[in-house]
Amino acid sequence: MIDYGFTDKAGRHVTLREVDGENWRAVADVAPLDDQRRYVAATAARYLLLSMREDDWNSLAVCADAAVVGHVMWGRDDDGSHWIGGMLIDAAEQGKGVGRALLRTMTGWLEAQEGCWAIRLSWHPDNVVAGRLYESLGFAPTGVVDGDELVAELAPSPAGAH
């Protein structure tokens, strides 16, 4: 379990956990709001398959207290940068601060990984809400566009805390 002590707006403890035999169905069923499906997969099942079939990504369950409320992937690029991808918060859990707590936990954990010199993620420019969240946490646009998504980067802090 990855736990940096962050909570959502309701005070629920947000942690990241390995996807396992007990939680994989709940993770696979995570689905965003309908209008977000043009930016992300319709369910986390697609991301779970990507992480199972490709070596680039690793899936984690996002939990608020004991409940699975989301999915996130992480990977390490050939240049040593670390990536966050496949982030979905279930529609019923949005607006509760879970995404912010998830990102703060994920960036803290990635910063602690050996050789981490940058953390990157990308989002579609029309996904204004996601862009505001990422930028509020210190992700800065790099000017690089990957497909139709903007790439942003966070330089790890010396203390490893965000």
Blueprint of the fold:
Blueprint lengths: L13 E5 L5 H5 L16 H9 L4 E7 L2 E10 L5 E8 L8 H14 L7 E5 L4 H9 L3 E7 L2 E6 L8
Overview of this structure, please?
The chain has 162 residues and is α+β, with helices and mostly antiparallel strands. It has 4 helices and 7 strands; from the N terminus they run βααβββαβαββ. Strands 1-2-3-4-5-7-6 form a 7-stranded mixed beta sheet. The longest helix is centred in the middle third of the chain and has 14 residues, at 98-111.
Would you list the SSEs in sequence order as H and E?
A: EHHEEEHEHEE
Determine the structural class based on helices, strands and strand pairing: alpha+beta
Query: How does the overall form come out from the CA principal axes?
Result: globular
Q: What percent of residues adopt helix (DSSP H or I)?
A: 10-25%
The number of helical runs is: 4
Q: Strand content of the residues, in percent?
A: 25-35%
Low-pLDDT sequence parts: none
Instruction: Say how many strands there are.
Output: 7
Radius of gyration from CA coordinates: 15 Å
End-to-end span in angstroms? 18 Å
Give the biggest beta sheet. Answer: 7 strands, mixed
Mean pLDDT metric: 90
As laid out across the biggest beta sheet, the strand order is 1-2-3-4-5-7-6
Describe the structure using short key phrases:
162 residues; alpha+beta; seven-stranded mixed β-sheet; 7 strands; globular
